[in-house]
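Protein record
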Amino acid sequence: MSGSLDQEQLAKQLLELQKAEPGTVPLEEVSAVVAGIMDAARKELASSDNEVVAKMIGLADYIEQAKQEIAALRPDEVKDRHLPAASDELDEIVAETEACSFQDITGQRVAKVVKALKDIEEKVDSLITAFGDEIAEYKSRNASDGAEETPTDENEITDDMLLQGPQLSDEAMSQDDIDKLLNSA
C-alpha cells in the first residue's frame, strides 16, 4: 500500500480495519493507514500555513503602505510649522481684541480653538513617534518639498508678499516697507 492516500481511500480502509477481527489485521495495513493519515494532516497543515503566511504578508504590505502615506502627510511639518503658526495667529487675535467689547466672546472661542490645536498636536506627536523613521526617509527622498521661495533682492516686494492678508506683527510689513511700495508706484 502506498504512504500517500486520499481521504476517501483512507476512510474505506479504516472501515475495513474496523470490520476485521481483532488481531487479524496485518501490521503493514495499519501502518499504511497511519502513514496516510499523517501525510494528509501534513498537507492540511502546510496548506493552512501557506494561507496564514499569505495573509501576514498582505497585512505587512498594507501596514507599510499606510506608514508611507502617513509619512507623506509630513506630520513633523504640521507640528513644527502649521500648529505654531495657528497658535501665533490666535495669540495675535487675542492681543488685538483686548479692551474691545466683544473680547470675552472672542477669547472663549479662541480658547476652544487653542484646546483643539493642543489635542491635534498630541496626536501628531504620537504619529511622529510611531513613524519617525518613515518620515525621515520620506524627507530625504523629497528634500525639495516644502521649500519656501524667498525673494532674490532683500528690498524686493513681490505680489506674493502683498497677498498674504493680515499678518503677525513681527512678520507683517513695516511702515517703511509700505512707504517704499507706495513710492515705487
